[in-house]
Specification:
Length: 300
Amino acid sequence: MIPFVRDFDFAYGRCDQVSPLIRRVVANNPGPFTFTGTGTYIVGRDEPGAGVAVIDPGPLDDAHLGALLDAVKGQTVSHVLVTHTHRDHAPLARPFAEAVGAPIMAARPPLRTIHASATLDEEEDDAFLPDLVLKGGERLEGDGWTIEALCTPGHASNHMAFVLEDENALFCGDHVMGWSTTVIAPPDGDMADYMASLDAVIGRDFATLWPTHGAPITDAAPFLQAYRAHRLDREAQVLAQLRAGHARIADVVPVLYAAVDPRLWPAASLSVWAHLIALEKAGRVRATPAPAIDAQWTPV
Ligand SMILES: [Zn+2]
């Protein structure tokens, strides 16, 4: 069982000091994929004249823009960082960056556009372009803090997490969430990449994870192990369903997700599809006629 963290003390628009170097403002965009909304992080000391970075400005929302500008009043924003280009993370970056005169830094735009996600709140912000493209591995030096860019593809092909070296903490975007597993929606989402990114994060032994949605994960190692085990279990369950003669995703999902609100089954179908694509690439299942969402799948 994943030790989910669902208690979350927040109020929309309020700026909370959540660690010595981190403040958070939550946008009012709750939903089945955003939990209580997008949490925008401000990194740096809360002092007049201090230099700060802002991570994931969030959705286009005037009230949230106002709350962010209030929160950084009298300070200098040196970096606007974006974990990935989904609409609950990226669109406010440009108006915020223009208001404070800071450059936007993020990974390149995604290679694959999302089509399958009409059912998700996770559509692509097609207009998003960073001022500076991060490749991963860069160390961004700020005013009393250092942030490392860490590539974590999987949830999105261009997902990037940000390491706050001073607190051995990771701003993990939607790569890991405390309240839920993350949606891997093909074609842009990729389960094999996701598992590799999860292993990379596990290998770094961070003290705290700060997801964009919800509360921090303060006991990171056991949480991540459970999170990883859950995916491997799910993969084994999908294979077992195929062996039991359920050849289509539409047959597998009602069995595996019987306990889940059927409104989330479209998203669950995408996750099962992501598992099957990874299994197909690994030569463990075959797709007829092609690895599409409505294919017939057989174990090899
Ligand atoms: Zn999100």
